[in-house]
Specification:
By secondary structure, the chain is mainly α. The chain has 3 helices and no strands. The protein is flat, with a radius of gyration of 19 Å. The relative contact order is 0.05.
């Protein structure tokens, strides 16, 4: 099933990729702070973009959930999508609780 997939290359490449991402993120963030790129307008714009993205993801998970139920029934894919849905909604509840606590 996994012919040609080298698990050791994956296990070595994944942490290396994460380290490279962290280094690039650090320097971009540092440069952005010096140039005042992360002001209130930036924060509001990205907050709104995350809100739209969250709503689109909610719809996409629901559509995928329905398709999986029709095509495969209650098998592994259904339970994985159900777990994603629960995590997705719990993250919203926890985030809303944190924001309401601070305001």
């Amino acid at each position: 099933m996994y012919e040609g997939f080298d698990i050791w290359a994956f296990l070595l490449g994944l942490p290396l990729g994460l380290v490279i991402w962290a280094i690039v993120w650090f320097f971009v963030r540092k440069k952005g702070k010096k140039e005042r790129m992360f002001d209130e307008r930036y924060t509001n714009l990205h907050r709104h973009a995350r809100s739209i993205s969250w709503k689109v993801m909610t719809g996409a998970i629901l559509i995928a959930w329905i398709i999986v139920m029709i095509v495969e029934g209650a098998k592994l894919a259904f339970f994985i999508l159900t777990a994603l849905w629960v995590i997705h909604m719990l993250s919203w509840v926890i985030g809303a609780a944190i924001v309401n606590k601070h305001h």
